[in-house]
Amino acid sequence: MLARLRQWWQHTGGLELKDYHKTASTQQPVRKLSASTAEEIVIPLQQHTGQPPKPIVQAGDFVYKGQVLAVANGRISVPVHASTSGRIQALETRPIAHPSGLNDLCVILIPDGQDQWGDQGLPPITDYQAVSAECLHQRISEAGIVGLGGAVFPSAIKLQRPESSPSPITTLVINGAECEPYITCDDMLMREQAAEIIGGCLIMLQVLQEYTPAQGLNCFIGIEDNKPQAIAAMQTAIDQANDPRLKLIPVPTQYPTGGERQLITLLTGREVPSGSRPTAIGVLCHNVATARAIYQAVVLGQPLITRYVTVTGQGVVRPQNFEVPLGMRMQTLIEAAGGYTSKAQRLIMGGSMMGVALPSDQLPVVKATNCLWVSEPAVSNPPLPCIRCGRCAEACPVNLLPQQMYWYARARDLEKVEQQHIFDCIECGCCAYVCPSHLPLVDYYRYAKADIYAQREARAKADLARERHDFHQERIERAKREKAEKLAKHKAAAQNKTADTADKQAAIQAALARAQAKKAQPAPLSTATEDKPA
Amino acid sequence: MIFGTQTSPYLHAQLSVGQVMAQVIYALVPGTLVLLGWFGWGVVTNLLLSLSLALLLEALMLKLRQRPLALFLTDYSALVTGWLLAVALPPYSPWWLILIALVFALVIGKHLYGGLGYNPFNPAMVGYAAVLVSFPIEMTRWPNPELTSMAQLSFEQTLQQVFLGGLSYWDGLTQATALDTIKTHLRLGETVSQISQGSQFGWLAGHGWEWVSLAWLAGGLWLLYQKIISWHIPLALIGSLTGMALIFWLLNPESYSSPLFHLLSGATLLGAFFIATDPVSASTTPLGKLLYAGGIGCFTYIIRVWGSYPDAIAFAVLIMNMAVPLLDTYTQPRVYGTKGRFGS
Ligand code: SF4
Ligand code: SF4
User: Fold this and answer.
1) At residue B25, does pLDDT exceed 60?
2) Which H helix or E strand runs over A108?
3) ∠ at Cα B158 (B152, B163), nearest 5°?
4) Of A188, A454, B173, B264, which alpha carbon lies 20 to 30 A from A121's?
5) pTM for the complete prediction?
6) Domain residue spans in chain A?
7) Does A176 lie at the interface with B, CB-CB under 8 angstroms?
8) Which residues are noted in the entry as [4Fe-4S] cluster 1-binding (chain A) (predicted)?
9) CB-ligand 1 contact for A446 (6 Å cutoff)
10) Which ligand 2 atom is nearest residue A430's CA?
11) What is the per-residue pLDDT across A212-229, written as a single tens digit (0 to 9) for each?
12) What is the ipTM of this complex?
């Protein structure tokens, strides 16, 4: 009731869909796929947001499961690990999961079929309460853990000791909303691995408590109320953990409730300021799958080498969830799900609202692959002009005016687009979903954002050039000034000297003669470097 | 397997502009039927003429502008414009009057500005205002519902009136509307209660008009329920008009008509739910809509009471259409995570 009332006076936007298409893929338990039978495992080095890691293996090397293939390189970087044992065949560029079929450097691993861990793994820290935050933090970092909700930002960086802003984290938000239609991997993970997720939450709480000691540190776990089984399982795990800081809060089923900012506002009642991170209001947000990965890394000593992936849609025979070794070819997952149906027309990684369409299924599963949605062909509706009906604005969870942004983006009035706060747009697609004119609104925003970035860059370059030019001008001016001053000084000195002797006259004559002689000579080729633009 | 790639989102609501417009047309049906019950065949001819001419003109303009015919004809926006004009013009309007109104509405008001989505003014009201200022006599005489129902005036007589230059005794069948009568007689020094004794008055407003207005209201509520329109515009328009009417009526009920009279007279409810809600020419922000429709209500009252035209919705809408770009610019809602215009 209160939520309804709140919706009345406060714009929340979002979509309430009739069907979230989640039941199809939640009918059977998650199946574990083994890397050992795969003919090759392709592990892209760059699977996170940030700098790519530096490879430390070579073709021909033998690696164990969990062995480091590349080490973190730079501040925002994480290592990648072998997802099975075998021999490195090559380090080469291969197509990665990107809409344009982009290539990137990958480690090609030929499994030996043993799937053996060897002795190089991370030592398990079973009693994580006994170790320091430093130690846990180190572990999270070296296990290659990134945000598994889709952003793939290195998790350890979000958890690190704050350097400048000492504002303590008071709330840890664990995102189990999973609002995107079709995706169910977090749902299944919560049903099956609730205890590990809660374990991960407790580890994060411990790190936060030590790094940014705060009164009343809480952990809110938000789960959409269309996942009763997940909620039940998680509640049981929370009861078992018996930690008063943990609180499960079912949230209304509405896309995009699982958006980081949307969930934070729903759970804490506070808004994340535009252009800031949630830490600005003392909140940290992690996904349930990330929490589980942290538990596995710390307590079990396993780096991030598998993840839950939903394979669903009308285009596959048996939609279901898999626990997949990273680097496995997508085609293998589809085959495990019974192969394609005759309706398979599009392969989309991620959800139906924000996912990326992939050109082929010969691509490796990466840390960001939460869902493979094989869908029926698109219904193509030719776009009509915007009729300014305002449905898009009603649906926008950020309270933007998509129709106005569209208008200005179309007119390439970038300044106005920016005034409309385009950079607060989270590209959730709600506006394009509801638009009766079938306008590809989000595309316009992507282009406009790219245009504005390009323009900013160009402006920065121009500014730099202007600065240099000004500096150069100033230098010329200064040289002129100094010359003039010198001349004036000389003149004054000359006037002071009254001696007008024949000697002097002779000297002058001689100088003149020298000058004449010099003039006759060819001029030196290049003048001062000053003429060149610096 | 190789797949085609597009960009997100890949799901879309199954709603099109054509469906939106079709709902508007459905919602116009009850009011039109009541109108037909009171005023007879003239409503049928208005509607048939207006709809067919609207389609014809729309097709012609699309052809001239080299736009895909099928795509734009099935957005049904021309039909909505035609329908609105058909019920706004007096029944039994001669064919040329309807044609001229439609030319102004669709050719000048819509396509010369760039067609669907680009017209700053409400096309139907452009057409209505154009014929109102050009042919005041034809526009201010409405048939007397007591004399022109289907039983009293045959279809042949209707055709004669519409196409063949008119019935000789037509003047006897018409009268000024209640709104018009109130205004002219108040200026003669009569009181509201005296004037309301006249035959064109019913139990609250114009005789018969009350029922038509209530039927528009029903259709409008259905549109609200279907979420085709939002509540902002109808509420603000009705609110500001009744608010103004209430103030003056309380000051002097003998020189100013009651708020209810204003609500149920003329095109108030048709305007609040069907005309002012035209999305293209209205403000598009929530606050902007409130101001836009509030302005229409105020101007409607002012023009009705102190202006020289019988009804004022059309002019009020056109005036406020001009303010829309300004309203849209200055009423941007507070974006998530920002301070907003007023710093809250
Ligand atoms: S939903 Fe589409 S048609 Fe409606 S205002 Fe937004 S962009 Fe325009
Ligand atoms: S894509 Fe951007 S503009 Fe559209 S609804 Fe989402 S946040 Fe709003």
Assistant:
1) yes
2) strand A103-111
3) 165
4) A188
5) 0.85
6) 1-32+124-302, 387-492
7) no
8) 386, 389, 392, 435
9) no
10) 5
11) 777 888 999 999 999 999
12) 0.89
